[in-house]
Amino acid sequence: MGCGPSIPKKYTVGGKGRKRRSIIQEVAVFVPTVRIPVASDIVHPLRGVVSKDLVDRLSTLRAHVVELAEEIYYADVSAVSELQHALEEYLPVVLGLTMKESCLESSVQFRWKTLDDDQECCLASAWYEVLSVVHMMAMLALFEANLTLIPKNGQVGGERKVSEDAKKDVVDSLLRASGCLDYSVHRILVQIPAQVKKSFPSYLQEGMLEAISIQALAQCVEIQLGLASECEKATLSVKRRLACEQVSYFSQAHYCLSGCNTSDSYGKKLLLFLKWKCMEAKAVAYYYHGLVLDKGGEPANHISAVCCLSAADDLLSEGKRACLSFCLANPVTRVPPPWGVMKNMHKKIPDVAYKKFQVYGHLFEKDKNRVCAVSETGRVRVAKH
C-alpha cells in the first residue's frame, strides 16, 4: 500500500474496475505495503486427503478474509479490526497444513498480491501462507495506528489533535505489529526452505521484516517522547533518554536494510522515511542534551550546550529536507504537520539555540582566543627547537 492509505488510481472489486479519487494521503505511521490474499483453489487439492468439514472451514475462512481485504482501502478502524479478527480465526486452521505428519505443506497454491499495484506472488507452500497472514496482520496494525493519528476531518494541513487514550491505542497497535514481524523472522522464516524464499517478493526479505519491526518500536518511543514532552514531571534526562532510544531504533532499522534489495518503491520510500525520522530524533536528542549540559556551572558546560543546540538546529533543517524527499518519493504523500514532540520542537529548537548563543557567545570568543594563544605558544616552541 506504499504509505498507509496511499493507493493508485484503479482497483478491482468484485470483478469490476472502479476508479478511485486521486488523493494525496497524509502519513503519521509508515506502512510500507499491504498485501491481500487472492481467491485460490483450496478444495480441489485437498479433496479426499482431509475431511470435508476441514476443507470447507479452511475455504470459507480464507474466502471471508479475501472479501474483507478487497475493501480495506475504504476501511475505518472498526473495519480493520474486523479483518484482523478474521485473520486470527484463519491462522490456526492454515497452520494445520504445516504439520509434518500431514504431508500437506506444499499441496495448495496460495495467491497473494500487493494492494496498490496488483503484483501477484503464488507459491505452493503453507508456510508462505502463514507468513503472508502474519505479515498482513502486522501491516494492518500499522495501518490502524495511522488511521487513529490522522485527523478525521481530513483537512489538508490540519493540526493533529489526538487524545492520550488514542495515543495509547496507537502504541498497542505498533507493539502488535512489531511482535508479528519479529515472530515472522524468528519462527516462520526458519521453517521455509531457501529455494522457496528465493521466490519471495522484496518486502518479505528477512532484513525488511526486521527493519519494519524495529521501525514500529521507534514510533512507539516517538509517541512516548511526545507524551513526556507535555508532562511537567518528566525530567530533561528522561526526555533525553527517550530521544536517544528513538535514534538507536531508527538507526538499527536502517542498518537492517543494508543487505536488502531496496531498489523498488517500497524500499526507497522506507529508507527515506527512516532517514527523516532519524534526523528528527537526533535533533531532539541534541536539544535535550544541550539543556542538560546548560545546567552545569562551568563555562565549558555552557559552550558545550550551545554547540549541542546549534547541532540540533542544523539537524532540524536537514530533517525538514529529508521529510520533503520522503513525501515526494513514489507513492507521493502529503507533507504532514508537525505532531507529537516535533509540534513544539520546530519553534523551540531554533529559538533556544539563538537565545543561548546570545547569552554565551562571549564565552566562544574567550575560548577561541585561548585556543589561538595555546596554538601560538606551541609554534614558538617548535621554532626554538
From TrEMBL:
UniProt-listed InterPro entries: BRO1_dom, BRO1_sf, BROX
SMART domains found in the cross-reference section: BRO1
Residue spans crossing the bilayer: none
Protein's name according to its UniProt entry: BRO1 domain-containing protein
Similarity field: Belongs to the BROX family.
The organism of origin for this protein: Panicum hallii var. hallii
Coiled coil feature spans: none
BRO1 domain boundaries: 28-373
